[in-house]
Each structure stands twice: as C-alpha cells, then as structure tokens.
Design a protein that fits this description.
The protein has 452 residues and is an alpha/beta fold. It has three domains: 122 residues, 3-Layer(aba) Sandwich (Rossmann fold), CATH 3.40.50.12160; 236 residues, pyruvate-formate lyase- activating enzyme (Alpha-Beta Horseshoe), CATH 3.80.30; 57 residues, OB fold (Dihydrolipoamide Acetyltransferase, E2P) (Beta Barrel), CATH 2.40.50. The strands form five sheets. A six-stranded parallel sheet has the order 2-1-3-4-5-6, sandwiched between helices. A hairpin with a 2-residue loop joins strand 15 and strand 16. Helix 8 packs parallel to helix 9, helix 9 packs parallel to helix 11 and helix 12 packs parallel to helix 13. It starts with a strand and ends with a helix. Bound molecules: S-adenosyl-L-homocysteine, iron/sulfur cluster (SF4) and FE3-S4 cluster. FE3-S4 cluster binds next to helix 1 and helix 6. The site of S-adenosyl-L-homocysteine has 17 residues, from strand 13.
C-alpha cells in the first residue's frame, strides 16, 4: 500500500510555493496526500520564524507528532523551512524523534534527503547551497492561480528581520526558466500568475551581464515585458516590493501592460523617518508617499496594500501616530500589521529600548481598527461598479456561490456554478461591500457589450 503524507504550511507565499514543490516530489516518489495529520505516514511541517508566535506554533504541533512516533516508529517526521534553517541541529536536540531538518534552500532536494533518511540516517540540511532549477512538477493547490518564484533570498538587512538569515543570499532565476514555467502553466490551464520574491525588485541584479543580442532582461520591469504575452495567462501579479527600489519605470510598465493587475504590495513598516532609519529600510516616509502618488498618477484606481510593524524598539506614541497618519493619508486597501517581535540573530533584538508587551498590544489593536476602517472606505468605492472576477473556487461557506478576485485583489463572491465558472473571468456587479471582501451578481453578456 502507498505511504501517505501530510504537509502543514506556515508563513509566507514563498513557503506555500515550496510546499507545493515538496508535495510534487513526494507524489512522484509514490506518496499519497492525506488530509488528516493524525494518520499520515510522513509529516512535513514547512515552518516560519518571522515572529516568535509563528515559531512556537511549530513546537506545539511537533510535540503531538513526537508522541505519535513512540507508538508508530515508521512515522517519518520532517521540519522544513525557516525554523529548520534557524535552529538546525538544535531542533534535533529539542525533538529527537525528528528524521529530517531541512532549510528552504533544500526544498527541491527532498527526494535525495529522504533516501538518506530511509537508509537510517537522521539528516540536517542547512548549509547554504545554490538552488538548482527544478524538474519536478509541483502539486499546486489551485488549478487557476499559481506562484512562480523569480528570486530567492534577500540581501537587505532590515534590523528586525530573520529572512536574510534563513533564506540566504539573493539568487535570481533566469528569465528563460521563468518564462518556460509560465508557458507550461498556461498549457495546463492556469490563468493567473503571481511572481514571487521576498524583495522582488532586486530581481536580476545577481544575473551576469546583458545578453549577446543586446536584450536586457535583468530587471523586474524587463521581466514583466518578457513574460507578458504568454497566451492563456490573463493576469500577472508580483510580490513583495521594496519601496527602496520601486521605480517609476516599473510603475509605467505596470500601467502599460494590460495583464499586470492594478494591485501593489509595498510594505512601509513605519511612518516615522527615525524609525525607518533604525530599521535600516533605506527610504523616508516622504519617498514612500511619492511612490504611492506616482502609482496613482498612472493608475488612479490602483489598490495598495502594505505591511507595518508597531512597537519597534524605542517607538514613541508620537512616532506610532505618524504610522497611523500615513495609513489615514494614503488610504490602504489592506495592511498586514504585526507587533514587533525580537528575533534571534537580528540586531534590533539586542537593543535595550524594547517596549512592553502591553504597549505593543495596545498599539496593535489601535492600528488594526484603523486598518479595517480604511479598508472599508476603499471597499465602498466598488459599490454598484462592475468588476472583472477571475473565479477560483466554490465558496466553502455557501455552495451556491463561487469566489474569486478582482484585478485589485478583493475577494468577491457571487451566485454561480463552479463547474461552469472555474477559471473564467466574469463581469460582476458589486452589490455588497465589506472591509476585505465583496459580494455581487454576474452581469449578463449583453449588458457588458453595451457598457464596453
Ligand atoms: N520582504 C518583505 C517582508 C518580509 S517579512 C519586506 O521587505 O517588506 C513579512 C512582514 O513581517 C514584514 O513586512 C514585517 O512587517 C513583518 N516582520 C518581519 N520581521 C518582524 C519582526 N521581527 N516582528 C514583527 N514583524 C515582523
Ligand atoms: Fe526582511 Fe527587509 Fe529582506 Fe524584507 S527586505 S525580507 S523585511 S530583510
Ligand atoms: Fe516566514 Fe520564512 Fe516566509 S520566516 S515569512 S516563511 S521567508
């Protein structure tokens, strides 16, 4: 009988993409997916260590599986991803039942590593390596939208952040490899691609020189032009953008290229210049505002989302208020917020001006209230409008409805049959607006023709 596997994924889109690749490898090895982690023969936790609570979650999951292993010695237990990279061998000491600890750079070497495990070894794979192009097909969660990695790692040194330590140095894939993967996805029927990188604007800077035919394919902007015309792909998105490198040339390209969606995720982290400096972000809040102004000059209706940290070491109430003002002034469609969490191996964790949990939690609650209000205001503008929705799935809470996203990335529900609508882009008249989602009804063809 085939052995079964179960993967639990924590953290960001990079981890989700890695999990899909590892699932693909396991399936080519003959493993079968098992939804119930309590009975699977192989358990893989793809972990995140961006904040302490993300890391602690993994230990509680692992504890349960370690107990199960006592009665089922054939259980294979794997920790992959960023906690694995950060903790390495220390993880084995903490959880001796583990068979394999593997950093994110090893995601596509899972088969080799497992062979060592099945030969009786306990394996730790965390040495920095060059990530090889992958020939295994990922097992993707969606049949409509897909991630495509364009750059791994991060060379920035934001003082709060573990990512450079756990994901290693920047490594761009070649434009040709990216395009080939996208063409393949188009053939399989995928409609939307999100190009991925922790600092996607750095794309290409590690690739050797220009091409002999004079073509420069070595910036994100060039890459967007290079991959844009693939037949079958209707939408292109990218994330995450760093304000330091978000150029007008890129903004212009996004406005010009019809498949690139009008949604940009550009984390600002703080609205205060001294804090931005302490974070080593390399821009000021004025520069950030100029970027958003420029985006809106070219694409007045563009959706903007961001990340922000509250309670960074030394943050005063006044500095916190500057972050609040930035959110009010710019009107974000969505902001992912977090209370600062001191992380091992990062400079800011060692500073002696840490704030109390109480202050951090209070600021987090206040910023979250503002973020919902702002998002609601941004959603309001959709009321009565007709939006293009790419249908992804049935609404799990209401099977008579399907769900998908607008170009601006708002989750949208409407009445419809998933078997007929999946993967189609449908004009939907928005009838209900909530802070982070919309409801509407499908517009009949004739009316669209009249409007267009
Ligand atoms: N590369 C992206 C973000 C990667 S991490 C960027 O440069 O913006 C995702 C988000 O987690 C960050 O934007 C930040 O808001 C948050 N984050 C990272 N480290 C954190 C920490 N130590 N404490 C709290 N939030 C943190
Ligand atoms: Fe972390 Fe900064 Fe790199 Fe983003 S750019 S992943 S916040 S170090
Ligand atoms: Fe977490 Fe690693 Fe992503 S720390 S946010 S899973 S890069």
């Amino acid at each position: 009988m085939a052995r079964s596997y179960h993967i639990t994924t924590f953290g960001c889109q990079m981890n989700k993409a890695d999990s899909e690749r590892m699932a693909g490898i396991l399936e080519t090895m003959g493993f079968e997916n098992e939804d119930n982690a309590e009975v699977a023969d192989l358990i893989l936790y793809n972990t995140c260590t961006i904040r302490d609570n993300a890391e602690q979650k993994v230990y509680s999951y692992l504890g349960k599986q370690a107990i199960r292993k006592k009665t089922n010695p054939n259980l294979t237990l794997i920790v992959a991803g960023c906690v694995a990279q950060q903790e390495g061998e220390a993880l084995l000491r903490r959880v001796p039942e583990l068979d394999l600890v593997m950093g994110p750079q090893y995601a596509n070497q899972l088969e080799d590593l497992l062979e060592q495990v099945f030969n009786g070894a306990q394996v730790v794979a965390t040495e920095p390596v060059h990530i090889m192009e992958d020939i295994t097909k990922p097992r993707r969660d969606s049949a409509v939208t897909a991630w495509v990695n364009v750059i791994y790692g991060c060379n920035e040194r934001c003082t709060y952040c573990v990512v450079p330590g756990v994901r290693g140095l920047e490594q761009s894939r070649t434009p040709e490899a990216i395009k080939a993967e996208m063409e393949d996805l188009a053939k399989q029927g995928y409609k939307e691609i999100t190009l991925l990188g922790q600092n996607i604007d750095a794309y290409g800077r590690d690739l050797p020189g220009s091409k002999p035919d004079g073509q420069h394919l070595h910036t994100l902007t060039d890459l967007l032009y290079f991959v844009h015309d693939i037949e079958g792909i209707d939408r292109i998105r990218f994330a995450t953008s760093h304000p330091r490198y978000f150029t007008e040339r890129l903004i212009k390209a996004c406005a010009e290229l019809p498949k690139v969606c009008e949604h940009f995720h550009i984390p600002f982290q703080s609205g205060d210049n001294d804090l931005l400096k302490a974070m080593s972000r390399g821009y000021t809040q004025e520069k950030y505002r100029r970027i958003i102004d420029t985006v809106r000059q070219y694409m007045p209706d563009a959706a903007i989302s961001a990340d922000a940290i509250v309670g960074f070491p030394g943050e005063t109430e006044e500095q916190f208020q500057k972050t609040m003002t930035l959110i009010e002034d710019l009107g974000f469609d969505m902001v992912n917020t977090a209370a600062y969490s001191p992380r091992p191996g990062t400079p800011a964790a060692l500073w002696d001006n840490q704030l109390s949990e109480e202050v951090k939690v209070d600021r987090l609650q206040r910023i979250n209230r503002l973020v919902s209000q702002t998002a609601q205001l941004r959603s309001d503008r959709y009321a009565g409008r007709i939006e293009e929705v790419l249908v992804e799935e049935q609404n799990p809470k209401n099977p008579t409805q399907v769900m998908g996203r607008t170009r601006a990335n708002r989750l949208t529900f409407f009445q419809g049959d998933i078997t007929q609508l999946k993967g189609k882009t449908i004009p939907v008249k928005i009838t209900e607006v909530r802070a982070f989602s919309l409801t509407g009804e499908q517009v009949v063809e004739q009316r669209v023709a009249a409007i267009v």
